[in-house]
Design a protein that fits this description.
By secondary structure, the protein is an alpha/beta fold. Helix content is 30%, strand content 21%.
Length: 664
């Protein structure tokens, strides 16, 4: 979805403020170059303080101020945090999960399949939409907020799951067979005997229930979308703020939501990206998050939440806030919106600081945001709606993520770690990547990386075979093609239905101890790298051995094989190794796929895209505390921020945590 301008702003909550300062806040936002606020998504109890009693005073204060100060508005439905009176009136709206029934207080603990919850959610959505639908400054709506199913497993919710299983497996014997329920006497003779899924020891059944909960989220967001469409005007959009797996910051793809499916009903994808900063700011998380956002609609996306000051160790160094903002835009984002405008003075997120600190005055973060705001007013028309043209794609798969949760490789190596290992290796080599899923069309990419595709359907495997046959270059990662969609392990040689394609096979694997791999680059012996966590003992048939294990007993087995297949090639990576080893492999594959490798690597990062005017944009980023000098090797152009001409062969000096943007 195209935007007329870059959206720059923050979440704003008049209802959270310790005193009335809405005029001051709007004036400060305008002074900083902001043009949008995001409101309303978390204050159901303010809009409906008691059952059926509504008070939209704060809402209209914000809408009126937005009109007065010409600020665009995104309105969120407030359904992810319920009021206390609703939990008291209908206790069952709080999810029954594996740990018993949730206690009221936190957000996202609601059973989104509960009829009483849905009744009251629809009522507040409709009341809210009646209040905002005629405000001329509302440009879009956000459905819920980082939606969760809260592990819902009430008897009623489980009955919905059982009904889906009945529809998929009309013959209960097929169900027993596919899920292997003879094991430990888990088989059932009739659907009425279906046990409580919270106690299952069957990984396939557990994964199927998690898949069902992801489908519930898709249905819930689609249900909200249909309601909002009744009130919307032409030109308004629907979005949602999708988030990521979390390890103290956004990390990998979200296991609890099928984001590809959920995004189908939206006009534009939105994402919430939080990342490390200070000396740990690399730009990789912003880039990965952007690749996810881009993948959901195969288009530009909105950053609906990101950090300004944020957590204790996230306070950015001078220059980093501005660098981060441009990092989002370079990935194809059409907005930079902070959570939130002001630091909160009460409750759970009091120390997740906003742009303004608790004194609500101008500070260094605000001043740097204003620098970006001034620049984006001048040059934003050159940067909006940036189109990417990546030659490399990485296949992501939610079912495989869950499969490796149910059947872990190790305590430290999970699906997202493997995914980020591959993505970050490409990132540091300045090879830009798209993310795709198995349902996508990916034949146009020169190189396709497939990490740990554990739960692979026959159809998906055939698509990979076709990709290679049509001239694509495939890197197939370890633990791929191991099980079907219900996590039933294939009973032929591994990897299933790919042994002829990769020219190799294995039937044994182990955790490596004191094992390394040795590359062979043509007739020359290449570098060695450590192997850890997982290794498959691969026997090459008619494939080249690109790397061999170095070990007194495992040394006869291949670590990496490579085979020409029809017009393409298939490379198999049988182990987890260092990022440097992976980069060495990706360089070899880039050469095979005729993908040009940039001369510079991290901490200088290069991003490219085409703007609305059909001109190529190149971003040069310096993610370090030292000056970096690079050579501009592309066509002549203009550095947009400074307005200076840049010629082919010119040296560009990037100061610490700074950037240059060339329009050619």
């Amino acid at each position: 979805m195209k935007m007329d301008e870059i959206l720059f702003g923050a979440a704003y909550y008049d209802e959270y403020m310790p005193y009335d300062r809405i005029e001051t806040d709007m004036q400060m936002m305008k002074k900083a170059g902001m043009n949008i606020i995001r409101i309303a998504e978390s204050t159901w109890s303010t809009w409906e303080p008691s059952d059926g009693v509504f008070d939209f005073t704060h809402l209209h204060r914000m809408l009126d101020a937005a009109v007065k100060y010409d600020m665009k508005v995104i309105v969120g439905t407030p359904t992810y945090a319920i009021p206390a009176w609703l939990a008291k009136k209908h206790p069952a709206v709080l999810s029954f999960s594996k740990n018993g029934q949730e206690l009221y207080g936190h957000r996202q603990l609601t059973d989104i399949t509960n009829p009483d919850y849905l009744f009251h959610a629809e009522r507040i959505i409709r009341k809210l939409m009646e209040e905002v639908k005629d405000c001329p400054n509302v440009i879009g709506y956000q459905l819920d907020n980082e939606t969760r199913a809260a592990g819902a497993a009430s008897p009623e919710t489980q009955q919905l799951f059982i009904q889906k299983m009945k529809e998929k497996y009309p013959d209960i014997e097929d169900f027993n067979h596919e899920f292997g329920l003879d094991y430990w006497s888990n088989r059932i003779q009739c659907w009425e005997d279906f046990p409580d899924v919270r106690g299952t020891i069957n990984g396939s059944l557990s994964a199927a229930y998690k898949r069902f909960l992801r489908e519930c989220i898709t249905d819930f967001l689609h249900w909200q979308e249909r309601i909002l469409r009744e009130y919307m005007h032409p030109g308004q959009f629907i979005t949602h703020n999708f988030d990521y797996s979390w390890i103290e910051y956004s990390f990998g793809i979200q296991p609890l939501v099928n984001q590809y499916d959920a995004a189908r009903f939206m006009d534009v994808a939105g994402v919430d990206i939080y990342h490390l900063t200070q000396d740990k700011l690399t730009g990789a998380m912003i880039t990965f998050g952007g690749a996810v956002g881009r993948s959901l609609k195969k288009n530009n996306y909105l950053v609906l939440e990101t950090q300004s000051q944020g957590r204790l160790n996230w306070l950015p160094y001078p220059g980093q806030l501005r660098l981060q903002a441009y990092s989002h835009l370079s990935c194809g984002a059409n907005s930079v919106m902070y959570w939130n405008w002001h630091s909160i003075h009460n409750s759970f997120e009091s120390y997740w600081k906003g742009i303004l600190s608790h004194n609500l005055a101008e500070n260094e973060t605000y001043k740097e945001a204003a620098v970006f705001g001034e620049e984006i007013k001048r040059i934003g028309s050159h940067l909006r709606n940036l189109k990417k043209n990546c030659k490399i794609a990485i296949l992501t798969d939610n079912a495989s993520l869950v499969g490796l949760e149910e059947f872990p490789i190790s305590d430290t190596l999970d699906y997202n770690t493997i995914l980020r290992w591959m993505f970050d290796a490409c990132y540091e080599l300045n090879l830009e990547c798209d993310l795709v899923c198995a349902e996508d069309h990916f034949d146009d990419y020169s190189l396709l990386l497939v990490p740990a595709f554990y739960s692979a359907t026959e159809k998906s495997i055939q698509k990979l075979r076709n990709y290679v046959a049509l001239g694509g270059h495939l890197l197939y990662g370890f633990k791929s093609g191991f099980a079907d969609e219900e996590l039933k392990i294939y009973h032929d040689n591994q990897p299933h239905n790919m042994t002829d394609c990769i020219g190799a096979t294995y039937d044994q694997f182990t955790k490596p101890e004191n094992v390394s791999l040795q590359f062979y680059d043509g007739n020359e012996v290449g570098p060695q790298f450590e192997v850890s966590e997982w290794m498959e003992l691969v026997k090459a048939n008619d494939a080249e051995v690109w790397a061999q294990y170095i070990h007194p007993f495992w040394g006869k087995y291949a670590a990496i094989t490579h085979k020409k297949v029809a017009a393409g090639t298939a490379t198999y990576l049988a182990c987890y190794t260092t990022k440097e080893a992976l980069k060495h492999l990706i360089k070899k594959l880039a050469d095979v796929a005729k993908i040009e490798l940039p001369v510079v690597t991290f901490p200088v990062i290069i991003k490219r895209g085409t703007n609305d005017g059909g001109k190529e944009i190149i971003y040069y980023f310096n993610y370090s505390s030292e000056n970096q000098t690079i050579c501009h090797e592309d066509a002549d152009g203009v550095e947009l921020i400074s307005g200076k001409n840049v010629h082919t062969g010119d040296g560009i000096v990037l100061k610490p945590w700074d950037l240059a943007i060339i329009e050619m």
